[in-house]
Amino acid sequence: MDVKDAIPLFDALSQETRLSAFRLLVQAGAQGLPAGALSERLGTPQNTLSFHLSHLSNAGIIQSRREGRSIIYSANYEVMHRLISFMVKDCCSDEFASIHEDKRSGCSIIELADCCELPETKEEKQ
Amino acid sequence: MDVKDAIPLFDALSQETRLSAFRLLVQAGAQGLPAGALSERLGTPQNTLSFHLSHLSNAGIIQSRREGRSIIYSANYEVMHRLISFMVKDCCSDEFASIHEDKRSGCSIIELADCCELPETKEEKQ
DNA sequence: GCAATATATCCACTATTCTAGAAATATGGA
DNA sequence: TCCATATTTCTAGAATAGTGGATATATTGC
User: When you count CB atoms within 10 A of the terminal residue's CB, does the N or C end of chain A come out lower?
Assistant: First the structure.
């Protein structure tokens, strides 16, 4: 993941309807939710929401599948994982954050230092 | 941090000039960089960059201070920390990510499971 | 084949964002 | 005080994004 890959993801998450829809899908898990249910829960007209779901889908942060008459959307955790890793690796200084893979558990372990306690930043604050 | 707080941060990072400028500031550390140096390194006209720096600054993800004739910008790591925590807590399912504070070291420890290996998601892929 | 359901696409309108030239402001030095 | 430097603010035009009514498409059951 580089800057060019990250832009459409940040863009996808930078609008209230989309971020809210994405969070509902995260809560829903791999099973996902049909477009209509999202529209109802968010109180957003179905065509407007459809526009935003396409946006999220184009960015790759959600995916869809048809089930009968419904289109079921679900969060793409792997993309979210990559975005978080990008933010830690490329958008945090080494002093404040580190990431390493734990092969045994299959986890990425991130350590975020509570940077505000560090003296350098304290004195630089405006 | 909630959805309303996160939107302006995602928005700030969702544009190439801004994300690139932010990353330069991250690399620069607490010391920061003057607006002119950023403008030069990015090849962006200084008034255009000034617009984007205001945008980042309004979002709170960078801050500025005057030093002589220069305005020095620097990344706000604490806000980035909070945004990453928000993404893990509220935009990742419990199965795939967890976060806890280590009081002794003052670090937030995040574990991101490599979700794509989990059978549930594998079979749900479109 | 027809009606009902679920969703996407088309369209026009409004609002916002991005861009960069020109002018304004703040600072430091002679 | 005057000039050079560093940066912001003003401005207007171009591009892009968001909205929702109307319509089209796909699916299911009768």
Answer: C
Residues of B in contact with A115 (CB under 8 A): 77-78, 81
DSSP A92: S
- Could you tell me the pTM of the whole model? 0.89
Shortest-distance nucleotide from B57 CA to C1'? D8
Tokens coding A56: 């999220």
What is the signed CA dihedral for A118, B113, A30, B121, rounded to 10 degrees?
Answer: 150
- Digit-coded pLDDT (tens) for B69-90: 999 999 999 999 999 999 998 7
| pLDDT one-digit tens code per residue, A4-38 | 999 999 999 999 999 999 999 999 999 999 999 99
SS3 A65: strand
Place A120 in a pLDDT band, splitting at 50, 70 and 90: very low
Provide the token pair at A39.
């529209």
Residue A110 burial (C-beta neighbours within 10 Å; 0-12, 13-18, 19+): buried
CA B14, C1' C21: Å apart? 26
**Angstrom distance (rounded) from CA A29 to CA B83:** 21
Per-residue model confidence as pLDDT tens digits over A29-75 = 999 999 999 999 999 999 999 999 999 999 999 999 999 999 999 99
